[in-house]
Write a structure and sequence with these properties.
216 residues; mainly beta; 7-stranded antiparallel sheet; 1 helix; disordered N terminus
Length: 216
């Protein structure tokens, strides 16, 4: 990851929160077990294809017509950063650790919309559509995802494989090597899949990781 892309992420991260800690850790995909906490700005890497979860101000041409979500092949792209947030009614604070089973939201850093799913068909495979929806002041239950850590780990760390299960519909955040040919040429479909598969696995990759808060 180039310095310029990390610098952009850190600059925007500071603008998101006035009380961000100066000890935040900037890391690459070469993970070293850094803990993921609320307020962290990160990229999610699809474990099987190594594409990053991505969004941009391009609406779907079918389904909901909401902002599209794709898998992006290049590491150095600022539209692949997401801010990890708790559910609206949670008492969790910035810097709190995130345990397996916790319900989270992912806010697209550049457009401020939430990673979202609902009962529309995805454009390529016909699975469930995953989109970006809402704003800083607008979020609903379609934005809620349950963190599921694979293996024995109990708290989310950068080196752990995870699944994200959509709370409202039960599908898993999924991607595969089916690619768009025109508007998002070379980018691959991200959708919701009902079955647990190897293509449901993601890893926390590049980002600005907040230290764990003193009060756990």
């Amino acid at each position: 990851m180039s310095f310029s892309c990390f610098a952009f992420a850190f600059f925007v991260f500071l603008s998101l929160s006035s009380d961000s800690s100066s000890s935040a850790t900037t890391t690459s995909a070469a993970s070293d077990g850094v803990e993921v906490t609320y307020g962290t700005v990160l990229k999610l890497m699809h474990e099987k294809t190594k594409f990053r979860l991505h969004s941009h101000e391009v609406p779907y041409g079918s389904g909901s017509g909401q902002q599209s979500v794709t898998g992006f092949p290049d590491v150095d792209d600022s539209n692949s950063y997401w801010v990890v947030k708790p559910r609206p009614e949670s008492s969790a604070k910035q810097g709190d650790p995130i345990k397996s089973g916790n319900i989270i939201r992912l806010q697209h850093m550049r457009t401020r919309k939430w990673l979202h799913s609902h009962l529309f068909s995805s454009p390529i495979s016909g699975n469930q559509e995953v989109s970006c929806f809402g704003s800083d002041k607008e979020s609903d239950t379609g934005d809620l995802w349950r963190l599921m850590i694979e293996g024995s780990g109990k708290t989310w760390r950068q080196d752990q494989m995870i699944r994200l299960q959509h709370v409202e519909t039960g599908v898993y955040l999924h991607s595969h090597n089916k690619k768009y040919s025109r508007i998002a040429g070379g980018q691959q479909e991200v959708c919701g899949m009902r079955e647990k598969r190897a293509d449901n696995i993601w890893l926390a990759a590049e980002g600005v990781y907040l230290p764990v808060s003193e009060s756990k």
